[in-house]
Amino acid sequence: MNKLKQNLTKLKSELEGELYFDDLLLALYATDASVYRILPTAVALPKTTTDIKKLIAFAKAHKIGLIPRTAGTSLAGQVVGNGIVVDVSKYFTKIISINKIEKTVTVQPGVVRDQLNNYLEPYGLFFGPNTSTSNRCMIGGMVGNNSSGTTSIQYGVTRDKVLSLKTLLSDGSEVEFSDVSKPEFENKLNLNTLEGDIYRAVYKELKPEDVQNRIKDNFPKPQIHRRNTGYAIDELINTELFEGEQPFNMCKLLSGSEGTLAFTTQITLQLDELPPTESIMVAAHFSTINSCLDAVAATMNHNLYTCEMLDKTILDLTKHNKVQQTNRQFIKGDPEAILMCEIRANTINEAKKEVEALIKTIELTGLSYANVILMDNAIDKANELRKAGLGLLGNMVGDKKSAACIEDTAVALPDLANYISEFTQIMNGYKQKAIYYAHAGAGELHLRPILNLKQSSDVKLFRSITTDVAKLVKKYQGSMSGEHGDGIVRAEFIPLMIGEENYQLLKRIKSAFDVDNIFNSGKIVDAFPMDKNLRYETDRDEPQIETFLDFSNSQGILREAEKCNGSGDCRKLPEFGGVMCPSYRATRNEKDTTRARANALREYLTTSEKQNKFNHQELKDVFSLCLSCKACASECPSSVDVASLKAEFLYQYQKENGVSFKDKFYANATKYNKMASRFPDLANALFKTKFVRGFMNASLDLHPKRSLPLFSKSFSKWAKKKSFLVRNPIKEVYLFVDEFSNSLEFDIVLDLKVLLFGLGYNVIDISHLESGRSFLSKGFLEEAKAIADKNISFFKNCINDDFCLIGIEPSAILTFKDEYLKLADDKETAQFVASKTFLIEEFIQKEIESGFITSSRFTKESKTVKFHGHCYQKALANQKSSFDILNLPENYKVTIIPSGCCGMAGSFGYEKDNYEISMQIGEQTLFPAVRKASNDTIIAVNGTSCRHQIKDGTGRVAKHPVSILREALL
Predict the structure, then answer these.
(1) Of 786, 753, 752, 758, nearest to 772 (Cα)?
(2) In the sheet where 863-868 sits, what is the strand order?
(3) Strands 863-868 and 892-896
(4) Percentage with pLDDT > 70 across the chain
(5) Which residue, among 633, 552, 512, has the nearest Cα to 193 in the 3D structure?
(6) 3-class SS of residue 233
(7) 390 vs 15 pLDDT, higher one
(8) Residue 439, pLDDT score
């Protein structure tokens, strides 16, 4: 062990929190949402302020930097570096206090922005700045970047809201910065401490009148409220200490300083009253980018709360993401750009009057071709579409991606049209069609070139385009960084933007705060080069990775992993809905995010020198808690399918390392279930005996608290003796009786048969096949492929426009629509079969829409139903089909439980190592909702694992929707 590792080992023993320096964690923290990659020395997750003090002392003693980090969604490389990454997102998450009278709140830096606002809502207050990452970004990061977002035209930026900061300085001393009067400032100057040194240095640097004039002449125009270029010394000279009226507050300087001056441990924020309750959005559609931008000035004459722009590139990407396909329904035609303008008022009539005036203004410009009015939930969907823009840019297939380098420029609104005209000329000169994604009302445009940063020629373009745009921004006295920060990508342009003398002043201020340069070095001053330390080695021989699954839609498995751009959607918490990512929600560890799995796979497939690049224990570790829920395939804007990545990894890893008895058993469990279902009563009795259960616990690593499923009689065996036949059926369908329903839940299959028979449908049972789901879950891809090919071959001669295939269990039937397309030899036929395959709820929903199934066939009795959908249904189909069919009985009151994953995930929840995590996931949303339901409320659940989990977690017995409908059938 080298000396550094010995010292880190000693430090680890002294911390209450966690310290890691293994290869996996270093790789995971080597990137953020930027294009950069720098392996850190270690990763710390401090629990206390004392821990951070120890880290500061260690950094000074060993000349190692500290890189503060929260959610890691920074776009400019702010939280990558070769020191110790200090991640406060796990333990510094407390909302400390609220002052309702003063409208302030005090928080730790790891509090999520939207989580804070959920807490504040009952008080009628909120924190205004609103980033596109608001459901996972944290207040500490927002202060570090001086974030703003869509609401800045009404509520300002984070810097405007920061009242005080408790910090640790570079000598470990605790200092709170806040408003100081002139007398208090004089006292600060007399302190014989580092705090006193800082105040003296700042005062000395800013006091000369010529310095103040130089700052005014060179810094971005003050009317640009989104400006983050360097340290905000232009804000400090506007205080009463110099020639302004506001009290002096060092927080103005620390906001936007990217953790380079001090380490923040506590933040007090000024809050605003909640915005007016009534909201209407106008989505103006334009045929050209210029016409959209030309309309901005006119719209801003109205009292808008947001004014946001999306261009065709992003809008087109939304067509290929399942969640965004729903959110984009308001789009008319094929616009080059849309401008989303939101009006708010205290009454709906006031809002409508303001909207009428806004539309009249837009129409008078003659620039738009459609002005769509959105209200209620439609506004939320449009906002989600806009928020997804950044992540969607990662969904571009191939090596050319949108590059974040000039995406944060801001100019004064009167300069916007001319700026864009010249910007377009620059891009045309480079034969670039930029992506326009903008806070247009604030004069900030997230403009991105499309570059392949794996090629040195495009890396040169990366620098030259950024340089030319920086000069253009300087011409208009704009800000190169509006809200995303300087980081690595823009910091080296600060001397150009504010002048060399001002830049040297910034360096002296940095030195006053941090003479040893331990806080986030390489950012803002003495910057790392913007074209070095990139995520990819340039001009490399691209690794050729052979896979069993077909990843050709992403041009291979490596590019599938590379689609992850680090936007961190997988870090959103349960209260913000969705499923992704259940394991992170339970552990709050970066290692257990979708992002971590994609990053780790990219890292090892790229850098491994092994013949089998999958053969790494680190990859096994990072995939170990993946539940293969498929949420990432739909909820991740980049649509990174980590479930498929895991299946491929397991297959490749097991080729080198073999398969455990446990995994072999679970993969083949359906075979054993089929055997047991021949004598279900005997099998169930045996499994309840202490000896058999004890043996199974030991050999299969079962958790003793986990119940075992009960076997039913085999449906396929029973069906040979029974038949249901409608003489003049509405339709005939094939029923895929999956391996789980066949052996474990005979009653549900029978309920489906009786239900469809009663509704006038003939059902042809196919009960001799299985889906291959168990094989897929354990990486037995050859066996899964054999089943896929067999099933595709069987059904290709059965299914046509008149005969479709339906199934009960989502994880089984939806395999036809997902994994089979990556497994089957006959891709064309597999695609055809997939197009004719439906979950039973989807089939009944279609028949309702066609008028063949009506409420008249069902009871008029009143009942309450709460529905929980299977993860695969949420990712690959939709829950609305279940909701619709459960509403067939006209007096049934049906609600969808806003739950994520149940936590069971097939064999995952049985295994001893996973049991606690499994139950934690269930406790996040699902179990409390079930417990809260009255005893006469029906719990409807269509996944077999989900029903099992609910029984073990709450004691309630859940029913499949078809069973509920069968009971309601007249």
Answers:
(1) 786
(2) 892-896, 863-868, 938-941
(3) parallel
(4) 99
(5) 512
(6) helix
(7) 15
(8) 82
Distances (CA, A) of 839 to 252, 713, 878, 943: 56, 23, 10, 11
Structure confidence by residue, pLDDT tens digits, 633-657: 999 988 999 999 999 999 999 999 9
**What's the average model confidence in pLDDT over 362-381?**
94
Distance CA 968, CA 970 (A): 6
The model's confidence at residue 395, banded by pLDDT at 50, 70 and 90, is: low
CB 564, CB 602: distance < 8 Å: yes
Asked if residue 764 has pLDDT above 70, the reply is yes
CB 173 within 8 A of CB 106: no
- Could you report the per-residue pLDDT of 192-227, keeping only the tens digit for each? 999 999 999 999 999 999 999 999 999 999 999 888
Residue 512, H or E segment:
helix 500-513
Distance of CA 832 to the CA centre of its chain: 32
DSSP three-state, residue 665: helix
| Among 550, 552, 553, 554, CA closest to 789 | 550
Residue by residue, DSSP assigns 414-446 as GGHHHHHHHHHHHHHHTT---EEEEEGGGTEEE
The angle subtended at Cα 131 by Cα 361 and Cα 124, nearest 5°, is: 85
Given the DSSP bridges, would you call strands 938-941 and 863-868 parallel, antiparallel or unpaired? parallel
- Secondary structure of residue 817 in the 3-state scheme: helix
Over the range 309-337, which residues count as b (16 or more CB within 10 Å of their CB) and which as e? bbbbbbbebbeebebbeebbebbeeebbb
- The whole-number average pLDDT for the span 792-813 is 94
In this predicted model, what pLDDT tens digit does every residue of 132-148 receive, in sequence order? 899 999 999 999 999 99
Q: Which helix (H) or strand (E) holds 9?
A: helix 3-14
pLDDT at 665 exceeding the cut of 90? yes
Mean per-residue pLDDT over the chain, rounded: 94
Note whether 474 and 497 are within 8 A (CB).
yes
- In this predicted structure, the answer to whether residue 863 has a pLDDT above a threshold of 90 is yes
The tally of CA atoms less than 13 A away on the side-chain side of residue 88 is 30
**Residue 627 confidence (pLDDT):** 97
**pTM of the predicted model over 0.70:** yes
**Residue 151, pLDDT score:** 84
Between CA 294 and CA 312 the distance in angstroms is: 17
Helix (H, G, I), strand (E, B) or coil at 374: strand
| Whole-number pLDDT of residue 62 | 96
Measure the CA angle with vertex 40, ends 37 and 41; round to 5°.
Answer: 160
Q: Which ranges constitute the DSSP H helices of 104-146? A: 113-120, 139-145
Nearest CA to 703 out of 416, 874, 428, 912 is that of 912
In one letter, which amino acid is 736? F
Q: Taking a C-beta distance cutoff of 8 angstroms, is the pair 489, 529 a contact? A: no
**SS3 call for 33:** coil
pLDDT class for 394, splitting at 50, 70, 90? Answer: low
Between CA 707 and CA 713, with CA 712 as vertex, the angle to 5 degrees is 160
> Are β-strands 18-20 and 42-45 bridged in parallel, bridged antiparallel, or unpaired?
antiparallel
The Cα 731–Cα 747 span in angstroms is 23
Backbone region of residue 570 per phi and psi (left: phi > 0; alpha: psi in -120 to 50; beta: other values): alpha
Neighbours of 272 (CB within 10 A): 17
